[in-house]
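Title: Prediction job returns without error message
Component: structure pipeline
Severity: low
Priority: P3
Assignee: unassigned

Description:
Job completed but the reporter wants confirmation the result is attached to the right record. Sequence as submitted:
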Amino acid sequence: GNIDYVPALDSEPKQTRTDERPFDVVFNEVDYRVEPEYEYDITGMVVSYRHHNEDNSRMHALANDHLNMLDVCVVWGGNPANERLDRISFWNGLFTCNFKTRDQQAWDAFNLNQISNNHLLSNDDFIRRQVKKIRVGDQIRVRGYLAGYTSAGGSRRGTSTTRTDTGNGACETIFVEDFQILREATSFWRISMWTSLALLLAGLGIHFARPYRPH
């Protein structure tokens, strides 16, 4: 694809030591304790996301967790330039980023260590408004702290501190200090994603429309 990539998309996320002490924040009249583990700076291209609000995340409501505004799954390094990336389906579950494909070439070219699911936390209205604007294909930069956190009367959620883990607990939990959409999705990438979906649906339609001929 002819996507204009920001140079930082090639780089691995930067994780550095921090002296930042645990601190308290309040959001929606709930107290949270945030425990920074590392400073973190990641640039990635969005492949799927899930907003957390009362409508789609009863679990967060029950846990009294409104600080987690969104989960966003991003790729970086060689993955955005994978010419068959649009053959891979990505979607966010409640706490995970999932992907699958039937295209062996797409899978072989995909680096499993250059994709991550990120729980984004913030009590800042401006940052929360910015985050609401993201779309699949956007190139974003997130800076802040990899941090565990606890909500008053809720349970604690930790964070991954490596990009090579998978499964439960493999997500990065980031308390966001700065969020930017560096480049909005090019229409090409969105169109190619939709085209591949439309072709798939058309293919299924043709498949089912064919008369059945017993051998």
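Comment from assignee: result matches the submitted record. The mean pLDDT is 84.
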